[in-house]
């Protein structure tokens, strides 16, 4: 029987998810990568990169807002690769809008992806982990915006605060199965999602076109990072690597910041 651990990473086609999937492969895990159909080419590319590292890889088209698709994702990990030991519920979106301009349908969509998607990932992964009887790691994507609300982030912050609560609840309920649940809370990271959010904010009437992300963070009532630069996806992946490892076995229910010192717990 193989002792190789198996990870599932959602939102894996680019940005943080891509970096996390590659890091877990470097750590010796076989990896199932999942993302939307519109990103299938990128998804297949990262699966090829994982295979080139000597690990097994599987790409599965998955919309995390559809619970049945998430259920299928976990089933594919179990049936094709042999199980699931780590679930990284990374998929997310980050639209911004002041409360007076907030579209309720957009609010619902953000929560559907960022919070309900994590719920589906946690629940279906945990069911498989319980059946396997070998423990596991549930890891969710929160944010610095999940520790403090900010201008224009009503939907995003609500979803990321929710991930913290969901992660704490999962930690309580699944501890008896040797399953830990933790979340990572990135600050400003150099990813396509960050770039898109910055461009949208630059285009709004609230900011000048030459504004930097540090300027925007200040205007949104966030603290400036003590390390005054954008973080890298690899720095976030390093944290996730540790949470996913056996060395993190006495850590559960935590949301750990990787934000250059924007916040202190």
TrEMBL record:
This is NAD(P)-binding protein. Belongs to the short-chain dehydrogenases/reductases (SDR) family. InterPro entries: NAD(P)-bd_dom_sf (IPR036291), Sc_DH/Rdtase_CS (IPR020904), SDR_fam (IPR002347). GO terms for molecular function: oxidoreductase activity. PANTHER family: DEHYDROGENASES, SHORT CHAIN, ESTRADIOL 17-BETA-DEHYDROGENASE 8-RELATED. It comes from the Eukaryota. Keywords: NADP, Oxidoreductase.
